[in-house]
Design brief:
The chain is an alpha+beta fold. The protein has 12 helices and 33 strands. Strand 25 and strand 26 form a beta hairpin. Helix 5 packs across helix 7.
Length: 747
């Protein structure tokens, strides 16, 4: 029997139409409109089978309706075209079973047609045969499976080239009866697009009974995975990681530059004109000359977290995958990243303004590849249309137009090389403090004045809370320049704030009466450097500086007697790196540092460390604090050894005794006086367990001897050349308060 002739689309009643959602294996193909629909039309058709039309004929008495697309998105429209092309090119029929009806979607009459005819059969299913294979609501599985295996072409390819899954048959209950229904290979989804399967001959050969059994798999509802959706408000939540101290946010970006092996970092606030707000606004810029990031790396940086490394790399600070997001979103609402490697350039836009009112978070990213001396859109990682759309979003929601982007990209050529690398981070809509901004900035005096350099300050000038602290003058808490001076245990990177160089200070090498202590806590070795700093004494500060991976985590941490009295330990500073100690040895390489890198978790090793630090600080205070009168200024309490950093190799060199460091030029190199060496010479280190003394002490005779003598805990020569004993006189705890007035002085 032949197919029933089909009428033109105009013969359908346009007023009699309903919406139908066409799916395949639970995945949406497209929303359609059904013209001249049957009664009680199901609103969702789930296609369970696609077979060749040559395998059966449509009964002539079956009624017909028509489907035309009514897509809700461009994706649906595209999938509907792919679906009809698949049916037309292979002359196949799609079968959808519903509770009271079975629909047969016929192949289009011509390529490119968007309308399709549908034959349908109403009523309960029957299992009758009349000499031909008819398309009925219930099909004998054995016969159909054998017919499909016989007629399928194994080399047949789908227009989408999707991955094939084996054919399965299943047993399903329809109207209280158990019948078998054949299903086609599983349709896969890639980037939200439904892929139609290829044919397969995986079931050819073998025992027919076993083949029939292998086709019987219970049909179940499609697996729906619950993936996490990121709401745009999450950007504001991320910024709260540094709500207590805004410099912690800047430190996250400094860490990224250090991990990128940058030799120079510029941090400044510039004033730019924003068309969106119609006025000039401040913008924080952080620019380094590191190795830059590829497309994959910048996508990883903008995603919310990534797999933690299996091993603890002491050369890297970044570990948790949230530093850039938490730092940038604490500083401002919008951030743009421009990065360049030797072969690529990428732009990423993390913006609260762009995502305001949206359901999902959008992070536009544009990547280019180098072609000779030019940069072209990298179509290997994105389409040209996507790149243009993302670039348009950047221009619309920021003040970066093509001219400003080109100007900033030109900064990569600052070293006059064609393959300059680095990363630039720009943040605007800065966090506010009342009518002003949380940050305030000064440009400094012109001419390179050493007395007043540019700085970025926290407007509140608030000192962070520490137990036992009495001083309200802690520049590190509100001055970015003071914080960056000691942020790294061994400074290598040149850091500029507001255009002027930060004079990095290796804290452990800037103390006097230095004492090196080695201990063992929880089976791990720790190394503590204790000493006294004249500047910290004048400001009334003291405490421990705890570094992790060479980066400052806690500053002025009071331990021992320092916690209970503001005068105990005044001016005493301890420096310790806990990189190896603060790693849990449980096989997972967990670290106990907070993900904002501003503290450590409360755990047994940390509690033991606090106790040990307090004990050693008290011992140092009792044994080494004398009654020498402390005066501001002068050379009485200079550091044991003064150090200078080479501007080329970034190594620290010890100056000879008596050399005035004020005579050093701003840019000093190893070949200059007083070192007069080469950059290949290794750095000097202080020996463990030795106290280096460079100033004369009270309570001793003062014969003519050389300075810079050393003493040990067993006794040795002191500063004045006398032989010291274990019970040295003249070392006593200084009393608190004003000095007593002698009786002779009383009136």
């Amino acid at each position: 029997m032949g197919d029933q002739p089909l009428k033109s689309d105009k013969s359908f009643n346009e007023d009699c139409k309903q919406y139908v959602l066409v799916k395949k294996d639970g995945k949406v193909i497209c929303r359609t409109q059904c013209l001249n629909p049957p009664e009680n039309l199901p609103q969702c058709w789930n296609i369970h089978d696609i077979v060749k039309r040559s395998e059966f004929t449509i009964r002539s008495d079956l009624p017909h309706c028509c489907l035309r697309p009514a897509p809700e998105s461009s994706r649906d429209k595209n999938e509907w075209g792919i679906f009809l092309s698949y049916l037309h090119e292979r002359n196949k029929v799609a079968i959808a079973n519903c509770t009271s009806c079975q629909f047969y979607i016929l192949p289009p009459e011509a390529a490119g047609r968007t309308h399709v005819r549908v034959a349908y059969q109403q009523g309960k299913a029957s299992n009758k045969h009349s000499g031909q294979k008819h398309c009925e609501s219930v099909v004998d599985t054995t016969e159909v499976c054998q017919s499909v295996r016989k007629n399928m072409d194994p080399d047949e390819k789908c227009s989408n080239s999707s991955t094939m899954s084996p054919i399965h048959n299943d047993k399903e209950s329809v109207s209280g009866k158990d019948v078998y229904m054949k299903t086609i290979p599983k349709i896969e989804e890639n980037d939200g697009c439904v892929k139609f399967p290829e044919s397969t001959d995986a079931l050819k050969g073998g025992d027919p009974t076993k083949r029939h059994q292998s086709c019987s798999v219970k049909l179940e509802a499609p697996l729906v995975k619950n993936y996490v959706r990121a709401d745009p408000s999450y950007l504001q939540t991320l910024g709260q990681a540094h709500s207590g101290w805004i410099f912690g946010a800047i430190a996250e970006l400094v860490d990224n530059s250090r991990d990128a092996k940058a030799s120079r970092l510029d941090i400044s606030i510039e004033i730019v004109y924003s068309k969106r707000v119609g006025k000039r606004i401040p913008m924080l810029s952080i620019i380094d000359d590191g190795r830059g990031m590829t497309h994959e790396e910048i996508v990883k940086m903008t995603c919310f977290g990534h797999k933690k490394p299996d091993t603890d790399d002491v050369t890297r600070i970044g570990r948790f995958g949230v530093g850039f997001k938490t730092g940038a979103m604490r500083l401002g609402k919008d951030a743009l990243v421009l990065t360049q490697t030797a072969k690529s350039r990428s732009i990423a836009f993390l913006s609260q303004s762009l995502n305001e009112g949206k359901d999902d978070l959008e992070i536009p990213t544009i990547s280019y590849r180098r072609e000779g001396q030019f940069m072209e859109i990298d179509t290997d990682v994105q389409s040209e249309a996507s790149a243009k759309y993302n670039l348009k979003a950047v221009k619309e929601f920021s003040h970066f137009d093509k001219y400003l982007i080109g100007e900033k990209a030109g900064l990569f050529q600052g070293n006059h090389t064609a393959t300059a690398t680095g990363t630039q981070v720009y943040i605007w809509n800065l966090d506010e403090w009342g009518k002003d901004y949380c940050l305030e900035w000064t440009t400094g005096l012109l001419g390179g004045s050493s007395f007043h350099k540019g700085d970025i300050l926290i407007r509140s000038r608030r000192v962070r809370s520490r137990p036992g602290q009495m001083s309200q003058k802690v520049p590190l808490d509100y001055s970015l320049r003071a914080y960056l001076e000691v942020i790294f245990l061994v400074p290598r990177m040149r850091i500029y704030v507001q255009g002027s160089l930060v004079k990095s200070r290796p804290l452990a090498q800037s103390l006097n009466q230095t004492c090196e202590v080695v201990g063992n806590i929880c089976g791990r070795s720790v190394h503590l450097t204790l000493g006294r700093c004249q500047l910290e004494w004048e400001q009334g500060n003291c405490g421990m500086f705890l570094y992790w991976h060479g980066r400052l985590i806690e500053a002025y941490k009071r331990v021992g007697g320092m916690v209970h009295s503001g005068e105990v330990g005044r001016g005493v500073i301890g420096v310790i790196d806990v990189s190896d100690f603060m790693v849990m040895d449980d096989g997972s390489s967990r670290v106990s540092v907070h993900n904002n890198k501003q503290g450590f978790q409360d755990c047994e090793p940390y509690a033991r460390l606090e106790e040990w630090l307090g004990k050693k600080a008290d011992e140092y205070w009792d044994k080494n604090y004398d009654t020498v009168q402390l005066k501001k200024g002068g050379l009485l309490y200079k550091p044991d050894d003064e150090w200078v950093q080479c501007n080329k190799c970034r190594k620290w060199r010890m100056l000879i005794s008596g050399f005035d460091s004020n005579n050093l030029p701003l840019e000093w190199f190893c070949y200059m006086k007083p070192f007069e060496g080469s950059c290949e010479t290794p750095e000097q280190k202080i020996q463990h367990g030795v106290i280096t003394v460079s100033t004369k002490r009270s309570g001793y005779a003062s014969p003519d001897v050389e300075d810079d003598a050393t003493i040990t805990s067993e006794g040795g020569s002191d500063t004045d050349g006398n032989q010291t004993k274990n019970n040295r006189q003249g070392f006593k705890r200084i009393r608190k308060g004003l000095p007593r007035t002698s009786k002779k002085g009383k009136s």
